[in-house]
Structures are given as C-alpha cells and as structure tokens.
Please model this.
Amino acid sequence: MPLVITLAHQKGGVGKSTLATNLRGYFAGGGYKTALVDIDPQGSLSKLVRTFAEQQGREPEHVIERGGFQSYEDLDRMLEAYDIAVIDTPPYLSKELEAVFRFSNIVLVPCKASPLDFLAIGDTLDLIRQAQQSRPALMAAIVITMTITGTDFTTSIRRELEKSEFPVLKTEIGNRVAYMRSLLRSNTVLGDDNRKAWEEIENLGNEIIYLLQNGYDNQ
Ligand SMILES: Nc1ncnc2c1ncn2[C@@H]1O[C@H](COP(=O)(O)OP(=O)(O)O)[C@@H](O)[C@H]1O
Ligand SMILES: [Mg+2]
Model:
C-alpha cells in the first residue's frame, strides 16, 4: 500500500505545486518509488515538469496526469505500484478533491504566512472534516509557507492556526528564490546552493512520515 500525500488548498499561489514536486523529489532521493500526480485538468504542473525535463535532456520524473486515469478508483489502483505518491490538486474545491481524500493518508494544507491567506483556509479544512466523518483515519496537517524573516506575522498566524484540531507542522517553508528556481532545475531545491531550502524540505518530509507512522499524539 502506498503512502498517499495530497496537497490541498482552495486558493492558488500558496505553494501546493512547489511543495508537491519538492516532496516527491525528497522521497525519491530516499530510495522510495514515487509518483507525482497532477489532478488539475489543465495539467500545468505536468506540462512544466515535462517541458523543463525535455529542454535539459533528462527523463521526466514519474508524473501521472489527469488524462492518465479513467476514474479515481483507477488512480488508486495505479498507485499500488509505488511506495509514496504525492498528489497536487487545483486551486478550487471539487468532487474530485473529495474522491482523492478517500484514498489519501494525509492532506497537507499549505498556509501562506500572510493575514489574507490565513482567512482563506477555512473551507479547505471543512472539506477535510467532512471526509473524516466517513473516514476517521484520514490525517491532515497545516504547513506555514513563504515565511518572511523579521516579521511577526508568522507567530500570530501560527497561534491562530493552532486553534483548529489539525496539527501545524513545526517545519516552516521560507519565502526563498530557491523555491521559484526549483521547477527550472530538477524540480526540487535539493542540490540548490541554498542549503536552507533543502533543509526545510528534508524536515518537512521527515515530519510528515513521522506523523503518518506515529499519529498526532506522539509529536
Ligand atoms: N516557499 C516559496 N518561496 C518563494 N516563492 C515560492 C515559494 N513557494 C512557491 N513559490 C512561488 O509562488 C508561486 C505559486 O506557487 P505554486 O507552488 O504554483 O502554488 P499553487 O500550486 O498553490 O498555486 C510560484 O511562482 C512559485 O514559484
Ligand atoms: Mg498549483
């Protein structure tokens, strides 16, 4: 059975696709057989990944696009061939998202460290709560992204987010050029000169695996 990690947030621009490619890259580097799934019907992430891989003459990473499976039951079966699948989702709530939640182990919700973005997270959390009613084993966690050093927003946003029942991961993802660059390179910040971004992805990957193995209470 693969571990299925789904990135979800109803807004665009919060870092879902960036975290999805980086996490897949991190797990692949750890020797796991990984798949990156892009359920966006526009498939912008899969197109990008393919284009850059072709330009650089390398094999594209294993990407499964929306056109690559008939139904979500079909996708669930396809993923049995992998150890870890990371699913990137489009910036709106939909029945498709509900279908993906049915076979996800954990939903990771990125929250941008800005007050407006904090307010936008509620509907995504509600959809997760709804899914948990029929499947209590579905886990979820919030990750604070694009933090800017020297602002106190992050601390107050963390405090607000901690009021929900979902854990807010200790790892925070900084606002770094390395992340913007990552799609142009190997799709990850791994190997980027900026070691800080690399460490963040390592910590995030490890924290997710720890949570999946030990549950919420033993953090
Ligand atoms: N941690 C980060 N630091 C700086 N820029 C980031 C970071 N994460 C994402 N970005 C940039 O922000 C934009 C939106 O990110 P993206 O991953 O596409 O978000 P989403 O998939 O939620 O729409 C992209 O231009 C991306 O390069
Ligand atoms: Mg995206």
In short: The chain has one domain: 3-211. DSSP finds nine helices and six strands in the chain. The chain has a mean pLDDT of 91.
